[in-house]
Amino acid sequence: MFVETPSNPTLEIIDLPALATLTRAAGARLIVDNVFATPLLQQPLALGADIVVYSATKHIDGQGRTMGGAILSSRQFHDEYLQAFLRHTGPAMSPFNAWVLLKGLETLELRVSRHGANAGELAQFLEGHADVRRVLYPGLASHPQADLARRQMRGAGGIVAMELEGGKARAFRALKALGLIDISNNLGDTKSLVTHPATTTHQRLSPEERAVLGISEGLIRISVGLEDVEDLKEDLARAIEQS
Predict the structure, then answer these.
(1) 31-33 and 51-55: which strand pairing?
(2) In terms of Cα–Cα distance, which of 219, 201, 62, 189 is closest to 126?
């Protein structure tokens, strides 16, 4: 069973202990993509998961410099399955990229803390905006799984999603009007980034599939960076007004 929590881009929270009980009873392994939460805010192995995966390109690097990944598992799984796969297929990063990621880990706690603080304040700001139909963020009381997020995570993370009135055309106008925040599919960077999931990360899904997942044409995902939060508010407010 492969899941991500919080999910991309709607920040749905999966009850990992409950899911671990189900998968264990079925004789299956639970694999968790923990990128949005980072290893600081959620530890899936302690919640019953068997394997945890990360795109280290995101928060672990945190500055858009390199690509990499990480797999966490039990020693038994590593020895019986993972080690042989790595040995025979060779997915190893260069020493320089490994060094960059190790340097990124030195500041991970500081960065994730600032990401979360900025994201929480920005989410509250956007929730009060008249032209924003909805805001999705696990730290908001309005999030349908806010209680589960508090039980399972040590913080709500640095990703916020907002849905604008006016669909794709309005969303595109807002994205183009941004001055401080960049458009990019990446996330977890020191710089704030935005993307339009319906035409990027989830563009291969049909409109009907996206509707089931809650990914509307007006939905924008924001990876909140380390800038002054007042500057971020001003940039988004201006972009929404000009759209």
Answers:
(1) parallel
(2) 219
pLDDT tens by residue, 89-144: 988 889 999 999 999 999 999 999 999 999 999 999 999 999 999 999 999 999 99
- Identify whether 6 is preceded by a cis peptide bond (ω within 30 of 0): yes
- Contact in structure between 53 and 31 (CB atoms under 8 Å): yes
DSSP 151-167: HH-SS--SEEEEEETTH
CATH of domain 2-106: 3.40.640.10
> Where are the strands (E) in the chain, listed by range?
2-4, 31-33, 51-55, 69-73, 132-136, 159-164, 182-183, 193-195, 219-223
- Residue 48, helix vs strand vs coil: coil
Q: Does domain 108-242 have CATH number 3.90.1150.10?
A: yes
**CA–CA distance, 192 with 231 (Å, rounded to integer):** 11
